[in-house]
């Protein structure tokens, strides 16, 4: 949870800080240190994702092989170091800033697959949804902190204003890494004996075995995998559009100041965090009582988390300059994304627990190409005319992407253990399987 908080405050603080860093020609009486146009800003925001997609698959495979502790910890440590030097890089040249963001993305790329591998080792099947939701809520909590705290710090004189966000969040990430490397283990069997802890408390259910060779052909020809990839791509596109570009819309179209901008951008993610836990608890309750299958639960939650935001964005296009209504629809759209943590985000572990890191690496690598695409789309549409009509196009495109991804997952998705995942672990004659159980 706290690791994902660190990842997201470091990833997203630039989305708010850049509003203070750049002199906006359209807005009178604004100050900033840099004269970057919309296209340059989009390139800077996208540079993180050029690096981020590189280690998704290798990081997932590494985590499945050696455990998630060191890939996750090392990724956040390097990301923290890059965050600390961000202000220095920005003053050299925007190209230097892009390079720092690129390497930050490379470091962060292995973290989510490593987290999936950790969840597959530690989380009992009966509590998978609620605990996974609790962990992934860290990303939303980090978003709240990044949006609100960065806005406040950028509007102050503390450590140079906008620069302070990078110093504070970089330092906090380093502190987290010390705690992580000191106390965390890869799996229950590595945990030292301590009062109240017993591996037997985690036994009795699904078997998590040492990973075998990956059945690449079966994975790459699986409709369930491709539909999961499609909906993750769609959700990631929508989420990045809202997370990285909403502060831009709130300032340039709705006219909110820095502190207001940060609060309005961040508060809905607090709502999302709370709702994510409630939805996860409800989904696990439905599953334990056999009211619905895992596949039905995942598809329902995915549908709400995609169709809901799509409809809200369409509503924004109908009232684009009504500040109160627009903010309400944005908040509702972000809150409904909470259902995704009980939807596609849990499906990797459902389908193939021992390959969860690798599978998430595949889908997240493809999904995070949207981190490159989304800012470029917004930059292209708004560079010449940053106005309501062009932002309508941004929201139309985002709503369409959400809808198509959900339709494909509903049609072809599955949360049942895949045959190829089970066959990959069938011991050969005379071979024993190294395993322990997590229920």
TrEMBL record:
Tagged with keyword DNA damage: no
Positions of transmembrane segments: 40-58, 70-90, 102-123, 130-153, 165-184, 213-233, 253-279, 325-344, 351-373, 393-412
Chief location of this protein within or outside the cell: membrane
CDD domains: MFS_SLC17
Gene3D superfamilies per record: MFS general substrate transporter like domains
GO molecular function: symporter activity; transmembrane transporter activity
GO cellular component terms attached to this protein's record: membrane
Topology versus the membrane: Multi-pass membrane protein
Keywords for this protein: Membrane, Symport, Transmembrane, Transmembrane helix, Transport
PROSITE patterns per UniProt: MFS (PS50850)
Domain Major facilitator superfamily (MFS) profile: residue ranges: 1-417
InterPro entries to which the protein is assigned, alphabetical: MFS, MFS_dom, MFS_Na/Anion_cotransporter, MFS_trans_sf
Cellular location(s): Membrane
Pfam families (UniProt xref): MFS_1 (PF07690)
Protein name listed in UniProt: Sialin, putative
Species for this entry: Ixodes scapularis (Black-legged tick)
